[in-house]
Amino acid sequence: MRVLSVELGVDEPDSLLRARSAQKAGIPEEAIRGLRVAHRALDARRRGGRHELRFVHHVDLDLDPDSPDAALAAVLARALRSGRVREVDPPPGFRRDDVDRAVAPGRIVVVGSGPAGLYAAWTLAANGVAVDVIDRGPALRERSRAVARFTRTRELDPERNLLFGEGGAGTYSDGKLYTRTQHGLEAPIVETLIEAGADPRIAFDARAHVGTDRLHRILPRLRERLESMGVRFHFDTRLEGWTRDATGSRVRVLRTQAGEIDCDGVVLALGHSARDTIRALAADGLVVEAKPFQLGLRIEHPQPLVDAGRFGPDADLERLGHAYYTLVSKAQPATPGVHSFCMCPGGQIVAAVAQPGLLCTNGMSNSRHSSPFANSGLVVTLGPREYGEGAFAGVVHQERLEAAFFAAGGSDWTAPAQRVPDFLAGRETRDLGRSSYKLGLSSQRLDRLLEPSVVEGLRLAIRRFDRQIPGYASEAGVLVGVESRSSGPLRLTRDPATRRAVGLDNVWPVGEGAGYAGGIMSAAIDGARSAWALLGVAG
Ligand SMILES: Cc1cc2nc3c(=O)[nH]c(=O)nc-3n(C[C@H](O)[C@H](O)[C@H](O)COP(=O)(O)OP(=O)(O)OC[C@H]3O[C@@H](n4cnc5c(N)ncnc54)[C@H](O)[C@@H]3O)c2cc1C
Questions:
Q1: 111 lines ligand 1 (CB under 6 A)
Q2: Is the per-residue pLDDT at 347 higher than 90?
Q3: Which residue among 95, 151, 222, 297 has the highest number of C-beta atoms inside a 10 angstrom radius?
Q4: Phi, psi at residue 296, to the nearest 5°?
Q5: Is the CB of 343 under 6 A from ligand 1?
């Protein structure tokens, strides 16, 4: 029994939840044997111009099933009808009883060790399937060394970086776990992370995040756990092509730079930056289509400006944590809509890059959100109307902009930047001030590097956002770019029911690079659900 929207003031203790939940459900407090917070969100909306912060909870109640109290049953039925209370099913597990274990799928190779690949592997192994995970990048320890070397020397290793290697793109991130999928698999996935060392509060916090520092302790434990389930990992093993059987519909051998691998099935969990691999596979039978994607700039402010704008001047940050925001500016007839994306409180702007000569920004943070800066992507959605026809037209468009930003920054990963008022007024910035971006900023006219319609959308949005967070459009804000990979421009077309790649009987494209996810949790869920589909069960 889940009681919805139980409110507590930010100064009120959690011990009041029992009484408040009982009150909301209309039942006596004594009828509650136990309770568990299923979801907690901070409501920081301003009311009448004032900051009235409150926590809003969904609370799962354990009631006495043998209670003879007919009056209680009637009250609960009424609460259910009113929508204040809802019955909840227990979350599913990775292992399914309805899998036909007489039909063995053979050896499956999962390509990519990001969240989609890891949870596809977990689900397959939990159901008794033999799995090999290959990744073009190295295991975490070596990957971390390469990332540190890049920051120190500016020499990019195209196979060992913020995008490629153990854990995928989310390994250097804020580790935000909230998703819009609302799928039951979220709970068991979160459980695996908690078992591996994540803060238990991620089980209910609406703004659950893990942080790069903790992710680096969790990932090796997840790998150990998978290995104990029989999964074999092969790092520094880049998929370069495949050989199909005589019918052309089944992939039999994967060609990698480390040699050939026989397989009975392939899960393609490549992420959004394996452009070379997807081009090579598209030339060999993989059906690829263009899809809309997001593009824009990253904006950075001092974190205290965001905290004060969202919580008011005297908020207890120890209790509340640093403020997040999600902002949306609706489209006008001639101006595209803009939304904030991947907001990192107390975070750092990074060069999320794998290819020489192409600059792309993103944000990460550690578990304590301890940097003095807040950053977020501000993006518009582009479709074939903006970037042209052809499956790879969006990729070409991304690459053109990323090359322009790389060159404008001085071709050494210094990022082009502009203070917000200068971007709004269309003039150069004299002094950029401090930033979290470790490779340095160079003052450039970003308003001239992006298409006019994107610039107009961003200008309108920033002015609007300033009404929600005072100072958002002020000198305190700096724009940095280019934010071009908040989602991928490709979809690897698959059958909606079987999730198989169109025309290929034993290939399952999954996750963000395949166009079916947009973050860590949604990629993990897509990987796990596709593994179920591979095993012949829906879910
Ligand atoms: C800096 C940054 C911060 C982010 N922050 C967040 C956040 O806070 N919250 C959130 O939800 N999302 C965040 N994201 C997005 C998130 O990381 C991705 O949505 C998610 O990782 C996608 O998962 P995936 O498994 O589909 O692909 P990926 O995680 O990209 O994994 C793909 C894997 O495939 C491997 N690979 C690629 N090509 C080959 C090949 N040819 N052969 C073998 N292996 C190959 C790569 O090495 C990589 O390990 C962030 C991304 C970045 C870059």
A1: yes
A2: yes
A3: 297
A4: 175, -135
A5: no
